[in-house]
Amino acid sequence: MIQFLLNRELRSERALDPNTTVLQYLREYRGKTGTKEGCASGDCGACTVVVGELVGDRLRYRTLNSCLTFVSALHGKQLISVEDLKDQGRLHSVQQAMVDCHGSQCGFCTPGFVMSLFALQKNADAVNEYDPHQAHEALAGNLCRCTGYRPILEAAEQACCAKQPDQFDAREAETIAQLKAIAPREMAELSDGEKRCLSPLTVAELAEVYAANPDARLLAGGTDLALEVTQFHRELPVMIHVGQITEMKQVQTADRHIEIGAAAPLTDCYAALAAEYPDFGELLQRFASLQIRNQGTLGGNIGNASPIGDSPPLLIALGADVVLRKGVNSRTLPLEDYFIDYKVTARQPGEFIEKVRVPRATPDRLFRAYKVSKRLDDDISAVCAAFDLQITDGVVADARVAFGGMAATPKRAAACEATLNGAPWNQQTVEAACDALAEDFTPLTDFRASREYRLLVAQNLLRKCFLEQHAPKTETRVTAYV
């Protein structure tokens, strides 16, 4: 059984298909049709909802794509949909702002925008404070095809600057007490009799359950796994949800490395990674949308082994390790050795990613990362590049160069590195290293880019890294796009 709050109503679900998404649950089971399905892939934001959860003794509100969220992920949380905002016949201030600023035309996308504005308003650092950057980030995952974004951004400004206490503030203490009462205390199971989803609470429980069900699909944020249900119409017989395991959601900075639990949402990874590597932080802000980053995990981005995943090239260049667990045994593997072939990894049956260890930055190394995509926001890379260089007295003492989108796996550029290592850090060396990239990669042509384009972009990103190191930074480095 799982328990959660549907706004203020306690819901206990025992016999429910665990393949049911939150979007389906709202529309088909609860009759709340304000939340819309636009793409069923997490791209448009029409299905945006807000989930409230306890962080210590405080409530935290985050947006999610309900089309990519399975109901089991709601266990112990509060689900808020657009119908819940109106109170005693009065529109919520974010809804009123959309009306006042003419932010809606056909209206299909409006509920999603309203929920993103609601979370933006709730998470504002202070009353009557508006940060344009935060507004753009909050709305980047919501697409409007008719009104245009200027009036919606004006609505965001009005909503933040005219923030007033609402019914959620008035009932905060009550909500916190309700969430504490239903906080998970033992492993939960959601099943319709044929399919099931297990939600262990500890790493030890996960290891035991996964060993007993090695064919189960591991579910973290679900932003990739859910596509098998929503896009390919497959059924997932057994899932193991890792989102309740506190140990695997922690982000800790030690003396020599950052330790990131495999179930930590990307939003929670941002501060630690950006503090050490600003380019990593900038790339994370272009990683899909805020809704996806609130769900998706670093462990999941590695685990799905996509050749165009945004984080693996950066982590490989930095020399990150993954800690793999099976039963009571753990092993640590350099991330570059984790990827074997397209969608093939070194993970054994019953083995899972427990954590990721990223070396901390040192003053003697230069780290640069670049993402090239067709859209600036909410898009997948055509090419992703990362360079970690140690340059001593004008000579490249050590080079780690990694790319995504250039091969069947994210991988290092061995010939390029060999050309750089021990050579002067100058234009001539860089050009030779660019030529060597043609030995490292034979990229594919697909709908994102041609093989010729990808190779030229990869070479130009190395040139860009060199030029930036010799000139003041004048613009954001990772915001290159086609």
UniProtKB/TrEMBL annotation:
Q: Which residues cross the membrane?
A: none
UniProt keyword terms in alphabetical order: FAD, Flavoprotein, Iron, Metal-binding, Oxidoreductase
Known EC number: 1.17.1.4
What InterPro entries is this protein classified in? 2Fe-2S-bd, 2Fe-2S-bd_dom_sf, 2Fe-2S_ferredoxin-like_sf, 2Fe-2S_ferredoxin-type, 2Fe2S_fd_BS, Ald_Oxase/xanthine_DH-like, Beta-grasp_dom_sf, CO_DH_flav_C
Among the Pfam families in the record, one is FAD_binding_5
Q: Which GO terms describe its molecular function?
A: 2 iron, 2 sulfur cluster binding; FAD binding; iron ion binding; xanthine dehydrogenase activity
* Matching SMART domains: CO_deh_flav_C
- Top-level taxon of the source organism: Bacteria
Domain called 2Fe-2S ferredoxin-type: residue spans: 1-85
Q: Where is the FAD-binding PCMH-type domain?
A: 190-363
Per its record, how is this protein called by name?
Xanthine dehydrogenase small subunit
Q: Which organism is it from?
A: Stutzerimonas stutzeri (Pseudomonas stutzeri)
